[in-house]
Specification:
elongated, de novo design (two linked rop proteins), 0% strand, mainly alpha
Length: 436
């Protein structure tokens, strides 16, 4: 009987031998392959220049400058600013800064367009007069009588348009004045009324300070409310605020819930609740100004009137001015469109007001009052105790310990007055009884 022996290769013996536990392979997991495109030194394809893109380049540039200037932070005026504002050199300063004015830079597209139209009309009429064109082409001219009749209407239209915009600006300024005054008064009432719960009192004061900031961010586009309220609110409160659709009304909810938790008497609670209505009124007025512009038909009528006026102005002025119609159209377009542009800019007042400075100032005022409240109270208590011991102080506090002395002094004065009155009566009687 023959026995067959099978020889194993060393690799087979190695694979069949048991492996330690830390060398055993883990169960395989499905591999996920996410393709990534790595672009190195790849440039976006250049935009194709079209007639539309070329014509829109100048208006887009002017609008970009205007919007960037609208987002600039405006400071509140101080004494030095007012002195500079009414200086006799203001006219020269304003003239030299014309090229940096956002109003004038925003007028570049319409002024260039109408001046170009005037140059084209002047060139055409010159070519017709010099017989460079066939006799079929007429000279573009017209009577100036229609312009003389419609000029007062255009002037009144521009004046009323600007006046309506300024009334909106004034209404927005008054609304924010009420909000700022209401915030200061509300904080003062809280500091006077709440005496026990200092932690909840501090939180309520921070909510009150946060309301103007939240309203400002609600009205101005692209405001960073997280950055503005990071130092006033805690992270939990800020997360709830950011999840809401109306940030100032969410702050009012924080204020109302905080006042519910306070242990206050009913008259004090009623006074504090009345201050919240000032915040609601400010939100309502500001949202109406922001959401309801001047009637669009009025704005469109003004724009169309100005455009048609300046398109036909070179034809009207050709007989009297010839080539001077080009600078005349330039001056007229720059002047009238400037008035219209100012009305459009101040129609949205919140971009023109110094809201950042107002919010910063009201926060500083309330914070200063919070820091000095305890010190002022201790000082007044010390004065009251000193008054009760040593008599009245220099600032006129009433006497507490010397009440009996003041009463005796008052009685002596009354006695002296009565004695002097008796002496005068005796003298008069003696004079009347003496023989003449």
């Amino acid at each position: 009987m023959t026995t067959t022996t099978t020889t194993k290769s060393p690799f087979q013996s190695l694979s069949s031998s048991p492996l330690p536990s830390h060398f055993k392979p883990h169960p395989s997991k499905p591999l996920k392959f996410t393709p990534k495109i790595i672009c190195s030194n790849l440039k976006s394809p250049p935009k194709q220049l079209t007639i539309t893109s070329i014509l829109r380049s100048i208006p887009d540039w002017a609008d970009g400058i205007k919007e960037r200037r609208m987002k600039q932070r405006r400071p509140l005026y101080k004494h030095d600013d007012w002195v500079r504002h009414r200086s006799s050199l203001r006219h020269l300063r304003h003239l030299l800064s014309s090229l940096s004015s956002r109003v004038i830079l925003s007028l570049v597209p319409p002024v260039i367009a109408f001046t170009s139209v005037a140059a084209v009309v002047a060139s055409y009429n010159t070519a017709v007069i010099w017989h460079l064109l066939p006799e079929v082409f007429p000279v573009l001219r017209a009577s100036s009588l229609p312009y003389q009749l419609t000029a007062p209407a255009l002037a009144l239209l521009l004046v009323f348009r600007t006046e309506a915009s300024y009334s909106r600006f004034e209404e927005g300024r008054k609304a924010w004045s009420k909000v700022i005054c209401g915030t200061n008064d509300f904080a003062r009432q809280v500091m006077v009324s709440v005496e026990n719960d200092s932690r909840l009192k501090t939180a309520l004061l921070r909510y009150i300070m946060a309301f103007p900031v939240a309203l400002k961010c609600h009205l101005i586009n692209e405001s960073d409310i997280r950055k503005d309220l990071h130092d006033l609110l805690e992270d939990e409160d800020l997360a709830i605020l950011l999840s809401s659709n109306n940030h100032p009304r969410c702050i009012i909810q924080f204020i109302s819930q905080s006042m519910k938790l306070l242990d206050l008497e009913e008259p004090k609670r009623t006074v504090l609740e009345s201050k919240v209505s000032c915040f609601h009124e400010g939100i309502g007025v500001c949202e109406q100004i922001m959401g309801i512009p001047i009637p669009l038909s009025y704005t469109r009528l003004t724009s169309r009137f100005l455009v048609l006026w300046h398109l036909t102005l070179p034809i009207i002025l050709w007989d009297d001015c010839n080539w001077i119609v080009v600078p005349a159209t330039f001056v007229s377009a720059a002047s009238l469109f400037c008035i219209e542009e100012v009305g459009v800019l101040i129609e949205e007042p919140f971009q023109m007001l110094s809201l950042d400075e107002l919010c910063t100032r009201v926060c500083e005022n309330v914070q200063e009052a919070m820091n000095s409240e305890k010190k002022i109270r201790e000082t007044l208590i010390m004065k009251k105790e000193a008054t009760s011991r040593n008599g009245p102080s220099l600032n006129g506090h009433p006497k507490a310990g010397n009440e009996q002395k003041s009463r005796s002094t008052y009685g002596d004065e009354q006695k002296n007055r009565s004695t002097s009155g008796d002496e005068q009566r005796n003298r008069s009687n003696s004079n009347s009884s003496s023989p003449r």
